[in-house]
Structures are given as structure tokens and as C-alpha cells.
Amino acid sequence: MAIISETSDDGSNGGVPNKKSEELHKNPKEEEEENQNEKPKEEDQEDDHQEEEAENLPPIPRRIPQALIRRTVALIRRCHYPSLSLLSKAFRRVISSPELHHRRLSLHLTEPVLYALIGFPSHGFPRWYILNQNIPRDISLRLSEIGSLPPMNPGSAVVTIGYKMYVIGGMIGPFNHVKTVFVIDCRVHTCNYLPTMHRARYRAAAEVIDGKINVIGGYEKRYEDWIGGFVTSVVMQNKIYILDDMRGLVYDPNDGTWESWEPETKLMSYWSKPCCVIEDLLYSLDPWCVQRRIQVYDPNGMFWTPVMGLHGLPNLNYFNCKMANVGGKLMVLGTTDNSDKGIWCVEIWCVEIALEKRERGQIWGKIDSMELVLRSMNAAYIDLCRSVTF
Predict the structure, then answer these.
(1) Cβ(25)–Cβ(2) below 8 Å
(2) Cβ neighbours for 152, distance < 8 A, ≥ 6 positions apart
(3) In CATH terms, is domain 153-269 a member of 3.40.50.920?
(4) DSSP character string of 276-333
(5) What is the pLDDT of residues 204-257, one digit of tens each?
């Protein structure tokens, strides 16, 4: 069929064929492509409006405000702070600022963390380890070495205040005791030296009462009124209880008075180096019991009783065992020897015990977890362990 096109005789279209007739000759497929490529006027206007709005927006800041970092980081688990501090100087400043600690306190987000000082005789001085809790609790806990901290001097006294650990004295060689004091910032795992003490100290007793660090003894005993080194020390009823090689001593810093507890007294019956205080009660590993029963001492009634309900504790090496108060729970860190398949190794176990006071003052314990946290083919010893909450 022929298609008839009409042209205008008056030349009003400048000799151009009529548009309607032109459209009649178009291929339907070409027409569809043109329609797809053609933008409606409304879309053009919308794009122009969005471009104008984008031009009016303020520029994206290159630096994140510290207040925003603080609000965000405060909600993140503490175990990630050392890694976050490597992101930038801004993150490091926020993480090391007291304001972040206060904000976490106000939000009730502080966490107790266990630190341990572990030595290997073949590798020099002991090093700091942290109980790694940045993994789901259905996966085993592990002790991880803190590479950013230098080896510690044996015989140092360590106390904690807030998020800081103070390391006092120690020994750097045979009979070479030191006067040094340095502080470890547990948020970013760095240390800084403080002014030295007047005397060098080794195996001193150091405890915190009312925010003040009391350092007792730990220097060479030249005269009768001088005090030498100690086995361990704790704080109960705002007094410093000190275990000597021969007896127990109690020092009251408020009035500067001393008491002496001889070996035959009740306090000395079960008190040993693996010990800690929780809610003003002294917990100690029984040195005479093969099953390593845990005893608890009440300073008010001045008597010892066994912690009830504990079954299945590993047979830990009494001479290589430590205790710590971790958020109100009793944490026991100790070693066992393993010769499985003829291969000897040292295993370090961590036992987490929840405590409950029942009728007639009895203390009951429940093992929340008991896990192998470190294995070594070399001999290992636990110098001490401390809990830090931040």
C-alpha cells in the first residue's frame, strides 16, 4: 500500500516535509529507542534541583570530631582499644583520655580484665600477658602476650588504680635491686617512668588504701628495725596484711600501728602465697590439701572455713599458682605438667569461680569456666596476676 505524503504549497515550513508525514516513515524499533533516550522535562528539573542542593551542602570534614569518637568508642569493648589506638592520633588521644574512662563509668560499661606476669627461665625476665576476651565466650579463652610492654623485673610489687598498674622496684641482676617506679596504661598498653624511690626495693609489700600507694619493706635488712622482703600482702578492713617467711604482720596506715601474727595463730593456718581478697574475705589455696581445696578467712570472726561446692578442680602446682579478684569472681591461674604421648609440656589453666554467701556464713563456689589458656614446651612460672577494671 502506498503512503501519500503532503507538502505545503505556501512554504511556511521552509521546504521541510510535514512532521506528521516524516513520522509515518519511521521504523517502529527506531522510534522506541528514541523514546527511551529522551528525558522528560520533569526529570531534568529534578536533576537540576539535586545538583543545586549538593552545591549548598557543607564540605565533608577530613577529621572526625573527638566528641564523636568518644561517644562511639565508649560503646566498644575495651579489648579492642589497643587496635583502635593505631588508627590515628585522634583515636589514640580519645582512648588515652580520662574523659573516655569517666564516660564508660557513667554508662556502666567498665570491664574487669586479668593480667598475668609469666616468665620462662630460658627467655629472660617475665613478660606481661592478658586474658584475651575479645572472642565469643563459646570459644576458649587464651593468654596473649603484650608485645608493646618490656619485660618486667623479678620481685616487683604491682598495684592497680583505675586503668593503671604501678610497677615498683624489683631486681635486674644478682643483688642488684632497683629504685624505679613506672606506670602501665592498660588502655593502650604503654608505660612511663615516674620519679625513683629513695631506696631500692625487692619483694616489697605494696597496697592501695584511700587512693594512696603504701610501699613497705623490700630492701636489704641491715638493722633490726628494718623490714626485708615479703611473700605476699592483701588489704582487709583498710589494713595491710603481710605474709612474712616466718609470721604474719598487720599494718594500719591510719594510725601507723603494727600487729604480729605468729605461726600458731588462726590467720597463719591456711594463709599462703596463692591468695586474694573478695568483699573483705581472704581466699587462699590450702597448702596441706592434695585436692587443692580453697579456704576462706573471716577477719571479723577470725576463723577459716572451706569453700563449699567446688568439685573437679585441676591438680594445680601449689608453688606455681596465683589468685585474683576479677569483678567479684575468684580467678585461679596455675600450672600442671603434661606428658601426653611422651611429649612433656607445661599447661597453664584458668579457673573462674562464682561465689555465694549462704546461711551461717558459709561460702559456696560454682565453677563458671575451667580452661587451658597457655601451653609451653619450656618451663614456665607465674610471677603474679592482677585485675584491672576500665
Answers:
(1) no
(2) 117, 125, 126, 127, 128, 167, 170, 383
(3) no
(4) EEETTEEEEE-TT-TT--EEEEETTTTEEEEPBT--------GGGEEEEEETTEEEEE
(5) 999 999 999 999 998 766 656 556 789 999 999 999 999 988 889 999 999 999
Given a cut of 70, whether residue 331 has pLDDT beyond it is yes
pLDDT tens digits along 169-197? 999 887 789 999 999 998 888 999 999 99
In contact, 341 and 320? CB cutoff 8 Å: no
The pTM (predicted TM-score) of the whole model is: 0.78
Give the cell for residue 352.
Answer: 573462674
Residues paired with residue 352 on neighbouring β-strands, in sequence order: 331, 369
Which among 206, 207, 186, 185 has a CA at the least distance from the CA of 194? 185
Task: Please check whether residue 235 is in contact with residue 251, taking contact to mean a CB–CB distance below 8 angstroms.
Answer: no
Domain spans in the chain, listed from the N-terminal domain onward:
63-110, 111-148+273-390, 153-269
How many CA within 13 A on the CB side of residue 73? 31
